[in-house]
Amino acid sequence: MQDSHMNDKQKNSRRRFFAGAAGVGAAAAAVAVLPKVDVSEEAAAPAARPAPEKGGGYQLSEHVKRYYRTTSA
Fold first, then answer.
1. What are the helix (H) ranges across 34-61?
2. DSSP labels for 21-68?
3. How far is Cα 73 from Cα 65, in angstroms, rounded to an integer?
4. Which of 9, 44, 47, 67 has the smallest number of CB atoms closer than 10 Å to its CB?
5. Which residues, other chains included, contact 51 with Cβ-Cβ below 8 Å and sequence gap of 6+?
6. pTM
7. Which residues 6+ apart lie within 8 Å of 59 measured at CB?
8. CA-to-CA distance for 36 and 18, rounded, in angstroms?
9. Along the 73 residues of the chain, how does pLDDT read in single tens digits?
10. 51, 57 in Cβ contact below 8 A?
């Protein structure tokens, strides 16, 4: 009785492995077929703000405010 249970467990494990491998292969094939996107330096770099006159550089932006809201209890 134990052997048949072990065989079912091994079969399920192998099935999961091969199903996962097939999924990874399909994803890799899809990525290989996708069109390439040419990203120029101008489009990739966001508009830079001028450097602060007195040094530093901390700015209270929206994502900083959001962080502060999440840390307050």
1. 41-44
2. HHHHHHHHHHHHHSPP----HHHHSPPPPPPPTTS------HHHHHHH
3. 14
4. 47
5. 57
6. 0.37
7. 49
8. 29
9. 455 555 777 778 888 888 889 998 988 888 888 777 665 655 555 666 777 777 777 778 888 889 888 987 6
10. yes
